[in-house]
Structures are given as C-alpha cells and as structure tokens.
Input
Amino acid sequence: MNGAEALVRTLVGAGVEVCFSNPGTSEMHFVAALDRVEGMRPILTLFEGVASGAADGYARMAEKPASTLLHLGPGLANGLANFHNARKARTPVVNLVGDHATPHQRYDAPLSADVEAFARPVSAWVRSASEPGTVAELGAEAVAAARKPPGGVATLVVPADVAWSEGARPAPAHEPAKRDTVAPAAIAEAAQALRSGERCALLMSGPALRASGLTLARRIADASGALLFCDTFNTRLERGAGRVAVQPLPYFAVAAVAALEGVRHLILVGTQAPVAFFAYPGKPIELWPADCAVRELAGRADDAEAALEVLAEELDAPADVPTQDRVKPEPPTGPLHPGAIGASLGALLPEGAIVSDEAITAAAALFPGTVGAAPHDWLQLTGGAIGQGLPVATGAAVACPDRKVVCLEGDGSAMYTIQSLWTQAREGLDVTTVILANRSYAILQIELQRLGLEQPGRRAADMLSIGRPDLDFVALARGMGVAASRATTADEFHAQLGAALTEPGPHLIEALY
Amino acid sequence: MNGAEALVRTLVGAGVEVCFSNPGTSEMHFVAALDRVEGMRPILTLFEGVASGAADGYARMAEKPASTLLHLGPGLANGLANFHNARKARTPVVNLVGDHATPHQRYDAPLSADVEAFARPVSAWVRSASEPGTVAELGAEAVAAARKPPGGVATLVVPADVAWSEGARPAPAHEPAKRDTVAPAAIAEAAQALRSGERCALLMSGPALRASGLTLARRIADASGALLFCDTFNTRLERGAGRVAVQPLPYFAVAAVAALEGVRHLILVGTQAPVAFFAYPGKPIELWPADCAVRELAGRADDAEAALEVLAEELDAPADVPTQDRVKPEPPTGPLHPGAIGASLGALLPEGAIVSDEAITAAAALFPGTVGAAPHDWLQLTGGAIGQGLPVATGAAVACPDRKVVCLEGDGSAMYTIQSLWTQAREGLDVTTVILANRSYAILQIELQRLGLEQPGRRAADMLSIGRPDLDFVALARGMGVAASRATTADEFHAQLGAALTEPGPHLIEALY
Output
C-alpha cells in the first residue's frame, strides 16, 4: 500500500470523514486514494481560503476535524487567513499539504517554498513526513494534535514521493485527549469571590457557550448576583428561545469598559482577560477596571462545564433559571436597514438554524434582533480576518445537512472568499446568504473617526468605499450557479428571505441599504 | 510630523508612486497621510492577493517598485501566494504591513499574529519599525532592499502607534545598488566552451530577455552554433516581429530533456540549471545530459547584458542577426480551440501590447501563435502559484497606461483572484481578459497520467473538473463592473477580441471550448 492510501485509511479510521480540497500535481496520489478508500468525502473548493474556512465551520458544528488538502507552500498560503481564524476559534483541523518529492526539494523549482514556515504561525502542530513507513502514524498524530483541547490546526506536510511510495500501512487512531479538570482551589476561589458581596462578572467563551453551560452560568449568576457576559466574538453560541441568553461584551472599548464598571472580580470561563480589538491613541487597552481582580475559573483546555457544575452546587444555585422567550417580530416594512433585516431574521429563522455571522457593522442590529428567534447556533468571526463567513457557512452546512444555514455577510468581507458560493452550488448545500450591501468598508469609516482623524480626504475616502463600480452580488452568485435576488425594501427582503428559507439549496439575497 | 506621513514622503522621494491597498484600522494613519502628501496613488483592491500580484505586474513593467499596504498578519497572509510568485520573478516590491500598536502586541487580541513569520518565506528583507523616529529610514532601506539586484519583496511592518506618533521626519533615498559585473574568467570560460566545437546551449532568464539582450545572445549563438533557450517561465520577455525569437525550454520534462540532448556545455545567463517542474516516479529531475557541464555566465544579480556584450566581442560575433518576421495569421473560423485563439492574438495584438500569460495548458498553443505578432511583452507565471495572471495584468496596466494589456487566463486559475476585475473597472484600466474556459483543471488531468495513475475514479475526476455548476464568467465580470461577452466559435472570438482591443477600458471575453 502506498503512503497516500495508508494516510487516507488512517484518517478515516480516526473519524475524519470530509476533505476540503484544492489539490495539485503533488497531491494526485492522495486524490487517487480517495477513490480506493470508502469514508472520506472530498469537496472541491476554487480557492484555498474557502477550504480552510469550511474546515473551521465544519468542525465547529461536527465537533471533530475535517481535513484540508492543499498544494505546496502557495496553496497553504492562500488558506492561512482562515486558519488564523480557526486558530483563534480553537477549531480542530487536520491540514494536509503536499510538497515536492523529497529528492526534488534541494532544487529551487518554481513552486519550492518553506512549507513548514508558512504553516507555523497558524498551527498547533507541524510535521513533515519523510518516508511512507511513518506517514500514517504521523496522520494519526495529526488527528490527535488537532483534537487536543482546546483544539487547533495540525499541519502534516506530505512530499509527493512519500505519498506514491509503497511500504506503508494504516496506523490506529490515538485515544482522544480529555479536557483538563479544574483544580478545586480555582473553584473555591471563584466561589469566595462570588460570595464576597462585591460586584462580580463571569466572562465566558469556548464550549461553555452551549445551552447546558449557559444554564449553569446563569444559575451561578442568579445565586450570586454576578453579571454574565460572553466574549464579543465566539466560535459557537447556542441561543434563542428556551435558552439562557448571554450578553456579549461590546466591541467598542468605551462600551465594554462601561459594561464592566464597578466589577471587582472578573471570573474567566474558557477565555482570557478582555482587551480592546485595536489600540487607539490615548485610550485604554485593558477593558476591566483597575481595581478588579481577574481570576481564571477554567482555561481554554479545561472542562469548563464540569467546573461550572461544581461551582453551582457549591453556591447552592437555584435549579431553575429564566430562559429567553420566543420573540417573533412583526414583518418589517418600509426602507431596508439592518434593524429590519434583524426583525425578519428574528421572525423567520427556523429552529436549529446555524448562523454564520460576518455582518461586521450590521451585526450590531442583527444580533439583538434574533435574541428571541427559534433556538439556533451563532458562529462568529473569531480572528478578525475577514472572508470567514461564507466558508464557515459552507462547512457548517456540510456538517449538518439537516439544518438550515444562514450566512450574514458584509459586502466588503464577502469579496474575500466569494468562491464559496460555487462549492455551495456544487454540493447543493442548504445555505441562505444575506449580503449586507452598504457598498463600503463601513467599519473603517467608524474606525477613522475613533482614531481621531478628521474627515477623510478624497484618496482616503476612496480606500473606504467599495462603490464605483457597485458590486452586483446577484450577478456574481448566478455566475457561480447560486440562485439570487436583490432586496431594496424591508418588504422585499422579508418575502425573499421567507422564500429562501423554505426552499432547499443555496440562495443569495443582496440586501441593499 | 507623524510616522505615517514621514514614511509616505520617504517612499515618494525614493520614487515609489503607487500603493496597492487593502487597509484596515491599523493602517488608517497611513491612508490619511496619502491625502496630505502628493505623489503616491492609492489603488484599492478587494483582496490582498490582487494587491501583491498587481505590485508584481507593475514592477515588471515600470522597472521600479510599487508599495502594497496590507492589514496585519492575516491581510499579509492573503497576499503571500502572489508574493511567492514575485519572489520567483525577482520583482521589487515595498510591502508595508500594519500591526497592532506596540503596547497592544503583548495581548493575544483576535488579529494578533506573528507578522514577520508570515513575511519571511517570501521576503528578501523583513523589518519592523519600533518608533516614529526611525520608520522613515527603514522605509528608505526597504526601497533599497527591494531594488537590490536581482530584486525582491521588502516587508516593513509598521505598528499603528509608530504611524500615529509625532517626531518623525522623511529620510533621503538610498543610492540604488548596481548589478554586479561578471568576472572576466567566467566570460573566458564561456567563450572557451563556445569555441570547443562541442554542442553548447545558452539558457537565459531575467532582464537579458529584453530585445537588446536577446540580440546579443543570438549573435553569440550564430557565431558559435550554440542553441538558444530561455526558461519555461519568465518575468518578462520581449518578443514579436522585428525582435530575436527565443525558444522556451519545454514544460514537460521529456521534451526538455530532448531539447538539450547532446549538449555538452550549458551556459546559464541570469538563471539556474533547469529542473523538472515536479518530480515523477522514476523520472529524472535534472533536465541536462549527464555528460553536460553547466556553467554560469551571469548570475541573477549580475549585469548579464554587459557580459553578453563582452562575450559577443570575444567571439567576434556577427553584428546582424535575423529577427522574427511579422506573421499575421488569417482570421480563424469554425470551432473555438486554443490554436484559433492563438491565431486571433497573432493577428490582432497591437504593437506594444503587454500579455499576462496564465493560460496553463492553453499556453502551448497561444505562445507559438503569437511568435510573429506585432512586438509585445510576455509576462509569465513565475512561481507556479495560480491566481497571478489577472493581478499582474492589473498592475502592468497601471504601470503602462498607454499600452494595451491582454490577460490570457485559465478558468480555474482565474477564480483565485477574480476580484482583480473590480479594480480594473474602478481604475478604468485598459485590460482585455480572455478566459480560456475548458471547465477543468486540465493540467491536472495530464499530470495524473504522467504520474502513472490509471483512469481516475469518480471522486478523483470530480477534483479535476470545475464544471457542475459551470462558471459564467460573463456574469462574474458584469457583477464587478467589467463589460463582457462569451465566444463559442472562432469567428465570434475573433470579432469580440477585435472589438475589445479597439475600445479602451477593461473587457472580458469568455472563450468557451
């Protein structure tokens, strides 16, 4: 058996069932092996940033890694921005990168590059296979490394001759590593703070943002009077009617500082102490009060839910907590704006929907508008590298074929990985993409003012506007085989969203406001 | 004066006139400075791979660097594949990357990443500015480093606070470094080989592929009976009627080995010993005969043209050499295929045209079809990272507004940086893009067979086909504001190409065959 086949068999044996691919010549033996081995679904993307982002979205929902198959250093380079997002999301991904055959590597051929150097900044684990006899064992290690809590990108470089040479055999899957148990002292410290009578806040992120973790956190907050927040940007948040609502810490630093005003004990659950997204001249970076003690209840690799459970018992927390009511907004009417879009979403999101949120400025209206929607998952831009929303939606739809995926996407961000639409069409994925078309990098217009810069001049203004020419997302979607429509009023949008959510398969709505 | 303004003034003073940009918050002070300083034209792209590739295309034609302005680690990451191509092209680029403000860097904010680590694999020079007092001097160093022969990507990381803080002043431009002079011994050795009576070949790349260098090489070949080749992929080749034609070494290794059969002395001019693009099981990597001596006449940083001049004198080479006749093919008719497209190009390319060639498999017909076209420049995919053709065409059109640019682009490759079309529309660039739409990664179908793999199974075949759904490039172009048409016969193509080359501004023709 050659190295490629042993590797595919090993990955399938370890539960890796999907491969988001942009293969080239050096990966052809891996591609050929996919035909000989049952159990690994290859999904072609037209650009590697789609593959890396889709693997992120897949793992967020499937709770296990997909693989990616990329072509040497430059193919990997194209996937790096979304691997950066996956790194910040702590998403497990098994990233396979082909390389030149070993004897070819000493020549400076056109595609020669330092593949490992490209991989290191985004990877929790990087190895290169050097012979067919060990590539399968490295594949098993890669899966284990990707899944090792809190989760990360494991990059395995596979030279072409390692893939094509005989003498390999599949390797058994590693026993999955468990999350660490939080030390009793950390729980006791948190309990002490929560009982102190001083103002406390819980700040949460990671897997504790599922319904069960949020219920525990709410019980603790109700028992102690603590405030309850989650990070501004999260990998996956379960929310909607019947669940415990949690308030994200505001994006803008001034608002975040206000939210934490008076807090004397900030208790971290699967996250780190909160800082401003960017620094601004003369403005604080740390968002917590100067006299506030920051304590970690559970680190990112810890079993936060178990710790919350012990803490809730310790505090004798009430068993029942209020959950979010179903709030079904009236169908909006009149001019189209993010608030109207939020109302439509709040009314129409079906139960079990998965929302991929890269709405940037518009998210400020869409998130509150959906607080009482039918229960759903909310996936966010974790690493600030725009171009994540469409690929994450694509991967989430692969992971959950029975659930509706809605992608809320800024027009500027959409253009980074617009090729995602083609993969959605090819695979018949049930994704409704809403393009929030304000025809500008609106966030930058806000940031310019926050930086204390005066009204931008013509050249600067040009760098913040993506009009001239206007992008026509209906044409772009149709060019990639996705049905599309444009809404310019709230009524049109509501009708189009209702129709798209009723029909299976990919749709795009350009919401022009 | 703040750091950003001092940096802009320094770059302008050093002759950097264009900035291909995808700015974000951390680059806003640089953007604001562009309004206060005359002489730097900012050009917005919708994806960083367009910016890096456009800077490459610009410098190939302008013979001096443009700058790029990218947003932190992930923005840089999106530009890396085309920086890889620029590295292999030895193109000078001044790559400016914003970073978090210095006091912000110790926090693991969402966009925090190791910017220098991303930059290193593609850069000839990487530095981070640490204070406003030195950022301008680093800018001047970056320009010098980019221009240092043979040319490369110089990356300067600029933290936001370095850009916004006062206390900076512009720095003077460095004296440009000259190319090294080839040692007389190397010229004498080459002369000795060329006089030996044994079969010799010159293999050329780099700046010697301009008309003057090629004339010298042809004179030497005629005096000595040597064969004359250029690399398979070149940064810029001057060719067409009235110029000396040069044969590129064939892409496929078997054909390249045959071309060099019997050669006992291979003389390198601005390039390295030729190797196969990829390795294949049991096939040779080195393309020259085992008993052939490989000698370097001029290295990549050397003044190859001066060396050729001395060598031509040494060999008492004839002053006159035959040049390529104008060959104007008849307008093709009937079914559309790459040969017909080549004939149309051969007939219609206007004098001074710049061709950006990322036609992959179709190039085998397009290159010979244009050998006798009106004189023109041919720019190629130097690093094998597809997605270069459209951006290089974009940058070349910025550099040469009075010349027609024609981009010959495979459909699979086009989708990597299709966002280029929008920048062409916004800037009104005179680029005619021909999409060679065979609806597959045709090169991979060939490579699969060359690797000795049997007929691909269904899953493998799916990874090589980009049909299902078919891409509609006319819709995609119109979605980005570029006039477009589709040709399905040779007659249609000829008429559409003729019209596009007559009208100014961007056009796209989807050549479906």
